Amino acid sequence: MRLLNYLPIVGLIFLWSCNGDQVQTVNKKESYISLKEGEFVDDGQGFFPLILNYQVTIQANDTSIWGAPSMDYYESNYPHNNKDKSLELFREDMRVIKSMGFNTVRLVKITEEHWNKLAQAPAVTTWYKGKYWRAHNFIEAADYPDYIKSVEELLTIAAEEGLKVILLFRMDGENEQLNNHVARSVEYLKEDTNILALDLFNEPLYFDSLDRAKEDVYKISKGWYELVKSKSPNHLITIGLAGIREAFEWDPNLVSADFISFHPYQKFQKGRVENEIYWYGKTLNKPWIIGETSTASDGKLVPYSEQIAFANKVLRQTVGCGGAGFSWWQYKDVSWNEYHSDFMGLVSRTDSNGNGVVKPTADVFRTFDPNIYKDSCILYPNYYNLTYESACTLTGKLIDQNGKPIEHGVVMAWSEWWDKLRHSQTKSDGSFAISADFNLHHWIITAPGFEYKRGGVDYSKIDTINNNLTYDLGEIAIEHLGLSEN
Questions:
Q1: pLDDT over threshold 90, residue 465
Q2: Residue 36 forms beta bridges with which residues?
Q3: Statement to judge: residues 98 and 170 lie in one domain
Q4: Can you tell me the mean pLDDT for 122-143?
């Protein structure tokens, strides 16, 4: 691939000491990245993380294990079973990412463990000898050094190319063995000052299979936070929430984290992302960033101009609403058999000749100045009715246990068979109106720090106004949980 602007290599120390269970790795500078008054600080200076998500394929043979660019980023001729070539290609990608204006990468899958039921042990999935997938299990101390070295090799290359790193892990609500493995892994990396944050879980809305009360989420996330901090006290901790719809269980104001990473996508609902960002800015009690977002463009079916316009709008809204950083999904296009996910990248897939094309959307990030749009959080006209639908509307008023109206509460409603849904937010007087082009039968409502309530619609009492169905739920009182908001 043609590389863009090369950047000088930063000073770095890379030390290894393998003695049984002891592994020391150091990308060393004077201080760790921290947060002060809601903003990131690096070496005493304010820092706005501009992040690109990057997927890694873990490769292995009989003698070694290493990280490599994702197989999904290549159409063919993937460099199997060659560690030096893999790391060379990874470095090349880091240089391209830096040249596009990014200062951080979020590495996905290299530390994203799972529970291997067959081995009854934590594991990562490796592409073995360029032939088939095989689990690398963590059963005893000897299973760690080579794996940790493979992680640090990528961290070192990223640091040399001027990029900080967020590492994605996978904690578990019930599995203490898996959580202890994550804690052990981060302890090996505790002195790496180039790590911006440890991301402990990705999108519980989709990947936490259990229904949980907010009190349980509070306890679980607090346990994760305390465990990881006990092993790596100086690294920041985040959790990736899918967006506003997490508020019913994984309440962002009750989740224990140094900052929240939100992952809003618009797909079939244009305007959803910038409206959700407005809600984050008005409700969060801790720093937050956009941890993932994007919209698809291949320059043909959807022109690049649409992706460029989206990137500009959500970047500006993030800064204007007080976001502390921004992350785009993802580096390259993939082939997952769905247009929306296939063409979100800033670079096209690498073809058989080793070429990939940088999309013009990259210029948005290369030229972006986060200081320009501060304090310009926009309330868009469709904030309370994203789709402008009106065939069926539920109205009501949200109040607390003392009868006080609750602003920025979240209400969500479904069709009869739970296959379609809409959401909205409450106004300053607690009132809400949630509308759809289908009949709404089930609802749930909450607010940050409060319990949630749910119910159904009695269609024997529904009104018809201008040929549209309307049902008033009246006043709904919810109680503040009284948990210390983290």
A1: no
A2: 39
A3: yes
A4: 93
pLDDT for residue 355 is more than 80: no
439 and 356 co-located in one domain: no
Q: Please tell me what DSSP assigns to residue 139.
A: -
322 touches 281 (CB < 8 A): yes
Q: How far is CA 460 from the centre of its chain?
A: 43
Q: Is the domain of 307 the same as that of 435?
A: no
End-to-end CA distance of the chain: 45
pLDDT at residue 141, rounded to an integer: 92
pLDDT at 207 over 80: yes
Same domain assignment for residues 309 and 442: no
What's the rounded Cα separation, in Å, for the pair 58 and 69?
A: 9
Are 287 and 423 contained in the same domain?
Answer: no
Range of the domain at 163: 34-366
What is the domain-level CATH number for residue 449?
2.60.130.10
Q: Predicted confidence band at 7 (pLDDT cuts at 50, 70, 90)?
A: very low
- Whether residues 442 and 309 fall in one domain: no
Separation of alpha carbons 224 and 231, rounded Å = 11
Number of domains in the chain: 2
Token readout for 416 is: 């009869």
The whole-number average pLDDT for the span 237-265 is 97
Sole residue written with tokens 């080793």 = 354
